[in-house]
Amino acid sequence: MAYLATLAVARGRAAGLYATLGVALGLSVHALVTAFGAGALIQQYPWLYEILRWIGVAYLLFLSWEGWQTERDHGPEQLGLRSNAAPLLLRGFLSNVFNPKSILFFVSVVPSFIRSGPNDAGLSLQMTSLGIVYVGVATAVHASIVILSGELGPWLVQGPRQRMVRRCLSIALALVACWLIWTTKR
Asked: Are 89 and 17 spatial neighbours (Cβ–Cβ below 8 Å)?
């Protein structure tokens, strides 16, 4: 959410919404992987979860570092983000597909809402339904954050506030990465 807010403030609502679509695609991957039983695989092999967790932490730290850079050093024109939605989609996707909290949610929490029975197809249908609902709700929340941040963006990024806001949001991303290190241990 911090990444989406940062992006919408720095580059506008459209950029944030493209990234939100990427985040939704990342959540969809988690839902599909869990529906097809990979959640059990991650539970069976804790090292696989650890690899995904550390990739997620590293990616958040990268985003934090990138946001810390001044606009001149690392502006959107240099990244090619003004004219092309693909990098925004990819960044949103990567920021969520390696999100350890999302992985944990789909591996640990969602299965507790599944009613088991003799029909395995019913299990997949339940997982798919819960995944669709979760992705829909999360996407609505993320889009709301982007729209609000996009509205506040012009006020926040004018003049001397721009550097302070970018740095504060970068610190927030770094703190989220540290929080993930401590709260997502198995």
From this structure: no
In tens, the pLDDT along 53-106 reads: 788 788 888 878 887 886 554 444 444 444 488 999 998 998 888 877 787 777
- What one-letter code names the amino acid at 81? L
Q: pTM score, two decimals? A: 0.70
Q: Is 54 helix (H, G, I), strand (E, B) or coil?
A: helix
- As a whole number of angstroms, the distance between CA 11 and CA 156 comes to 12
Strand stretches in 52-175, DSSP E: none
The contacts of residue 71 (CB under 8 Å, 6+ apart) are: 10, 162, 166
State the number of CA atoms in the 13 A half-sphere of 86 facing the CB: 2
Rounded to 10 deg, the angle between the 161-183 and 2-11 helix axes is 160
